[in-house]
Predict the 3D structure of the following.
Amino acid sequence: MTARQEKDSCALGILALSWNLLVASLPAEVSASCIKAIDGAGLPSMTIKGDGSGEYSGYTLDLPNGPLCFSTAKQAPSEGYMSQNYKSPIHTDQLYAPYAMNWVTLHSIMDPDQCQLHGDCSSGGNYVDVSLRVVVKCATDTVMSMQPKFKHGTTLAREGVCRQGTAINFSRHIKKAFDKAIAIEGDVKAMVTQLVEEKK
């Protein structure tokens, strides 16, 4: 494996772990509706460039004491993110699935002096659903699903706070680009030309 493939393999393992944890932890209604949307979308699971094995299950986590293999687990769907100190103003997203999912893997006050928490103050980085008037306080090992068609965003975190996590998303614009690439048999030049023409 090249250095790039090794790095991709690590990211793939983290996102596959996230996907399997999210599907197992969230209500069946959420998981089932997302899996149904994925099946209907026809997008492939995440895989490593150059992996011609055709395998669409299993992943490995490279841990300090050696690799930990999940040979029968599902790979992550085609769109996943790893983020640190993510913030976003209020917005909506257009998805081909009814929900998006995320897992906060770390929420920690790294510098208490800089953070200056007093009394009942929040350290910030909280998810806000404006439509439902709900705030989900950011905390390590929080698993959440949301319906991004409704207005939502995150609050700013205080200085000295570190937040990390993963998200699985189902953006329509990525599916649209994939469908166009398939329609023109992966001809990138033709796809770019077509997208430029549409912008005019």
User: Anything to note?
Assistant: The CA atoms of residues 4 and 49 lie 9 Å apart.
